[in-house]
Amino acid sequence: MVAFPVRTTVISALLALISVFQITALDTNAWEWRFVAGGATVGAGAFSPEGRYYFPAEDRYLYALDPNGVMIWRTDLGRRATGGIAVLPDGTIIVTLARGRVVALNMDGLPIWEADLEGDNVFAPVVYRNGIVVLADRSGQVGAWTHHGRLVWQVGLDEPITAAPISTSDGTLVIATSDGSIELLRPDGALVQRRYIGEVATTLVSGDRIYLGSSAGRVIAIDLDGEPIWRADVGSAVQSLRVLASGDVLATTDDGSLARVTESGVVAWRVAPGTAQMLPAESSVELIAASTDGVVTSLDLSGNLIWQMRLPDQPTAVTRGTTGQLIVSTQTWVTYAYSDGTSPDVTPAWGTSRANPSRSGGTGSGRQPAASYNSSAPYLASWGLIRSGSQSQQTVTMRRLWDRAWSGRLQGDYHWILEIAEYVAGAPYLGPISQSGTPSIARRARTDAIRTVGLIGDLYSVELLVTLMEYEPDPVFQAEILGALGRLGAVIDAEFARRLRAQIARDVATGPDDRLAASVVEFVLDVDEFRGGYMNPEIADVLLLIASSNYSRAVRTDALDALRAIARADAP
Amino acid sequence: MRRGLVAMLLLVPLALFAQEVDEEELQSLGTDDLEFINYSGPYEQIDSVEEIVGIGRSLGGAARDGSSDFTLNGRYRIIRAVDPDEIGRLDADIFAPLASARVDHIDNLRRILSGFLQAAYDYSESDADLIARWVTIYNAVSRGNMEFYSARYKEIVLVNLSSENAGLSRRFDEWPGQSRVVVPLSADAAPGVLGSVDPGELGDERVVEELRSQDDRGVEDRQEMVDLTERVIEEQEEAIEEEQEAIADESERIDEEQEAIDSEREAIEEARDEAADLPADEREAAEREIAERETAADERQEQVDQDRANVEERAEDLAEDQQEVADLTTQIREEREQIARDTRALLDEREISDEVRGLEGDLSPVYFLQVRDDSGTILGQLVQINPVTGLLLNRSSEDRIISRTYTFLGGQLLVIVAEGDSGRVAQFDVTSLDEVQRGIDSVFLGSALEVAGDPARAYAVIESEGDYYLGRFDESLTLLDQSVIAVNPYTTIAFGGGRIYVQTADDRVVALSIEDLRIAP
């Protein structure tokens, strides 16, 4: 989803190159909804899995609209937004602001954390499926943060960055610099290689390959090892790229042209001048172009016109919602939503299941293959100490790793620290430790391991912790697991709520232990505070069960208070 | 109700007949193609526009070079009225077309101003054009209002203004020698500073209301101005951040220097103790050295104290700047909200169907009070609906109707409108929904509103000297009489048997005589 610069040209020249077409003219006034903000939209906005539309506006507010265009909330960002916005798999919203600031908000629009990069002009975030978000600014500073704001790593490149970084399907970060090179980084920020391409990139996109659009008017295909495959001349500086399922690439240029380049690097067709901006929609059968004289055009992938519409105002951004609506933002602060009558092949941007983050959107997983670190000395040493069998060694080692997670000193070692923490947390029920015959893990070490997983905040850890909760009989560890899930800001879906209810029911039947119930209440409040904006009826049931069972008065009161707190938060 | 710029433009064609176009002026500037002032051809128009803008650039260049009073060709004068010693009020550049100047079109006057702003302050052409438009409106709405100027501008500005020439006349023939256009300057006005022309001052509510009175509510201009102001705010925020960092660095340096001084004093004391044990001849030299070190330490301390005072002063200034930015941000936020409301209203008006205006009989328009929550107060607009199609026909421009119902008086719609802390009865035309007239008496905001009798009279609860009474109004909304007895402001007003039933202030239901509003016998 992108926004286009103001100065572009009329699309009408497209007609000259289309031999046979039937155009449907959409009724400009047949919008499904329209919304007037306190300023023009900055950028093109982003959608949540539930179909909410988030967009920052020039009045420094971030707006959240429901699928019917009704404002749910708006929140003061405090600074001018610069157009970068992303929604993480857990619903966290990342917004880039002026003077290098980035802010993360929960689904209620409440700020969770913020980061300050050195340079101005922070690019649109790169989001990994495990919740890691990579931010880069033009000065060359690049950093990765967990979804709850913990710095994972940070590097400073020698050259300024010229295009928004991207991630390939294997999680490699691709960054283009002003000297005509690209740098490939691992998910932990380590440099894989630096390759001189000879062209300054204005835009990057990835599919099975990396595609670079240059200021010199070329589209360059590069393999995942950084080796150029072909270069195609599209006539003018490339503004945006889109990779089709066939492997062909569509490019828009700054002279208003639209070009299609085949998988083998041949320019199949070019329409010029005209197109202002192309919509990288979920649809696989059409693309949308908009020009500043107010015309929005839909084309099929052969360049044939499907429909055309003239807006009452000059558009600034066009995007397509998760329900297939066409969302058009205009310079007069009005956003319109149209249904164009087509049935786009809409793939939801994000999966709806917390339990399977691999079905979430984004690009790479964010997890690094073990082969990249399993020969490193610190990893081997730590593993050796854990498996040595000495409980004091295990405790000391895990405490050291916990301390690194607590103080945010994870750069370069994020992935192996997480791996060890997960393995130790899972012992004695899950993972390689339970299967290896290693002597029992010290309780203190296991406690620190669980806490470390929560601190690190990788969303892929949620599944482990939820599964562990099923196995764990000890209420002390149950409380620690729930505490880690709370710190992680895990999503509580109906399934997990039912599991919790079942555990509470078991606990009540076997003689209730306040520790479990208290940790459940605290967990619910932690997640509500972090994520905001939900009232899962199943979790209400859990709290009611606690409140009505023979736990101590204090625990029952806390459960009722939690229920009230969540209900108030959810009140319109 | 619509005046201002529309009136200004209407006068221009008359002027073209009444006064020759300024050929002489343009010839002196190197072109003899006067008719192109109305000419639409690009080449000639561009040349002429450029020459006119060039007048402004010449003035701006002179001001930038340091001239505080410059006249161009005896026709246009620019006065730079800046006094850094007076604080609390504004500086200004004053543009004065002199008696021999014959600029006769508001567009040209704006072009001159735009050229001036570009040259004097490095504004971009688009920003300069925008500011020039607002400057002329600002000066038009404050024409001759010395009270307005005195409250806002420094003495050095005021000495150049009078009630006869302050601001801009709406008649072009009252510009030469009779109008002085005041351009408000901020305290840090300088070339390259986006906020040189004070956007908060230009965005004065009277200027905004002038724009809102236009058919398009001046939405586009207002949007552009808030965008410009946002950029000014951001520029100021960046400067504030830089200053905060500078102050922090300086404070750190001062603290380090203070620590060094303190260490030095400790060392001096130790040296003094050691010197006491020295032989007499050595002691004298040591004491001299100690004295020198003490003097040096004192000088350093004096410097540190001075530096600290400077930093504190800078911090105070910074706090003031932050407050100014916060105030401007609040002003812009409010204006954005208003623009958004006006934009919504305009969008609704675009959907008005003209086919069914003036519907009669069974097809009479349906009237509706559409309400909104305005910071906890429910306010409404009259809306006209086509009963056949259900389409919105029209909407009143008045959007602060406080009564929950409407009625009819004298063939017109009657409602209560909120005005400050009280209400006023007001009538609206049934076709156009334009306000026809408004009463002057204070009506309780939550009052019931009824019409009864022949001739028809309107009844509402009025406020008088802290109490509430039933008031009776005629068709001109003049208050004819009021009840003697005080009433509960929320009373129902009911009619029956020639009487009016109300609830008194002590909550009794009583009947009043319809003749004199006294307790009925």
Outline:
Chain A is α+β, with helices and mostly antiparallel strands. Chain A is built from 12 helices and 34 strands.
Outline the structure in words.
The complex is a heterodimer of chains A (572) and B (521). Chain A has 572 residues and is of the alpha+beta class. Chain A has a domain at 367-570: Leucine-rich Repeat Variant (Alpha Horseshoe). Chain A is 27% helix and 28% strand. Chain A is built from twelve helices and 34 strands. In chain A, a hairpin with a 5-residue loop joins β8 (81-87) and β9 (93-97). In chain A, α3 (391-406) runs parallel beside α6 (443-456), α8 packs parallel to α10 and α11 packs antiparallel against α12 (553-570). Chain A starts with a strand and ends with a helix. The model of chain A is unreliable at 1-24 and 342-362 (pLDDT under 50). With 521 residues, chain B is an alpha+beta fold. Chain B folds into three domains: 5-214, no CATH class; 237-350; 361-513, Neuraminidase (6 Propeller), CATH 2.120.10. Chain B contains eleven helices and 18 strands. In chain B, β12 (449-452) and β13 (457-464) form a beta hairpin. In chain B, α5 packs across α9. The longest helix of chain B is centred in the middle third of the chain and has 71 residues, at 280-350. Chain B is extended and about 125 Å long. Residues 1-47 and 353-358 of chain B have low confidence and may be disordered.
